[in-house]
């Protein structure tokens, strides 16, 4: 049975609007474009781990950002567990393909929760690319549909993200995201919900 993995990403984000149209990215799922994006991420990681010079993508898209600028994350899953996750939750100055290359490279070493990825692990890792849509302010976080929307929480310089499908229940999700952000009081908390589109390698694709 195929499992989908989601993650909590902790960090400080640049708070600006994202105007990306996720419908265009949604239409990429199940197409050759999705396969090419995942292959781009895998080849980038392979080149990084082997110390090879990064190659330019062998394909192109219509426009730098097919559906407008979006946040881009790369998650590496090993043995049904998140091995690393790195991303940017705000529009990139570069194009979509360059953003994937950048984040895929960073996924091999930048996640401070884990040790860097080793070359020997590459064939045991499954890759997930996530793109995030517009942040919508929410006055009542208990009203969020956690199955279909992610949550971003902010209090001063403390932030954390919960992606769609991760929360077991609403109360569990709110407690977990506050804990990850290091938020201990209920004063001056900002909540934003957002939609995410994921491109995932199949379970049997991570053995190569």
Give descriptors for this structure.
5-stranded antiparallel β-sheet, Glycoprotein, Type 4 Pilin, 4-stranded antiparallel β-sheet, globular, alpha+beta
Description:
The protein is of the alpha+beta class. It has one domain: Hypothetical protein ph0010, domain 1 (Glycoprotein, Type 4 Pilin), CATH 3.30.700.20. It is built from 4 helices and 9 strands. Strands 1-7-6-8-5 form a 5-stranded antiparallel β-sheet, covered by helices on one side.
Alpha carbon gyration radius: 17 Å
Q: Count of helices?
A: 4
- Note poorly predicted spans: 1-19
What is the helix fraction of residues, given as a range? 10-25%
What's this, in brief?
This protein is an alpha+beta fold. The chain has 4 helices and 9 strands; from the N terminus they run E-H-H-E-E-H-E-E-E-E-H-E-E. It has one domain (8-206): Hypothetical protein ph0010, domain 1 (Glycoprotein, Type 4 Pilin).
List the helices and strands and how they pair.
Layout: E1 8-10, H1 22-26, H2 32-49, E2 71-78, E3 81-88, H3 96-106, E4 125-132, E5 136-137, E6 150-155, E7 158-162, H4 170-181, E8 190-194, E9 196-200
